[in-house]
Amino acid sequence: MSDKSERPMRPDPIQRIDTQFFWDACARGEFVAQKCEPCNKLWHPPRPICPDCHSMEKSEAKLSGKGKVLSWARQIRPASFLFAESPWIILVELDEGLRMLSNLESENPPEFGMRVTVDFAQTSGGKAVPVFRPEGSA
Ligand SMILES: [Zn+2]
């Protein structure tokens, strides 16, 4: 978990019935995705049915939290209200093959192919959202 001495300002994620398991896992410091029981496909973001075989039989699979930067952008406008943590927006390909958008928590800009590890940024209501750090950084 991120260790910030000041109270986090980032707002809580918007939770729906299909995403509740993901945000609950993040609050516990766990990084998970949905897994289809019949075909074993992993998917993210959360949704009620498998995008491949349309089965509704699913479970949670714990992810390694490791991946590489496929693309990135720097936010050059002032940060949105309550989102001042990082100017770096990254597209990560996780080692499990899933892709997700997130923030890179780093003083230095990302590089294409750079290895990253998930961490969790605390939110103002006691929840957490996944962010990434360069692999090997504290
Ligand atoms: Zn499936």
Structural key phrases:
5-stranded antiparallel beta sheet; 6% helix; globular; 138 residues
Gist of the model:
With 138 residues, this protein is mainly β. It is built from one helix and eight strands. Bound molecules: zinc ion.
Q: Can you tell me about this structure?
A:
Helix content is 6%, strand content 36%. It has one domain (20-134). Strand 1 and strand 2 form a beta hairpin. It is mostly beta strands and 138 residues long. The mean pLDDT is 90. It binds zinc ion.
Helix-residue proportion:
under 10%
Number of beta-strand segments: 8
Structural class: mainly beta
Total tally of structural domains: 1
Q: DSSP strand (E) fraction?
A: 35-45%
Give the strand line-up of the largest sheet: 6-5-4-7-8
What integer value in Å does the Rg equal?
15 Å
CA-to-CA gap between the ends? 10 Å
What is the fold's blueprint, element by element?
Blueprint: H1 20-27, E1 32-36, E2 42-43, E3 58-62, E4 66-74, E5 88-94, E6 99-104, E7 115-122, E8 128-134
Antiparallel strand pairs: 1-2, 1-3, 4-5, 4-7, 5-6, 7-8
The protein binds zinc ion.
The site of zinc ion has 8 residues, from loops.
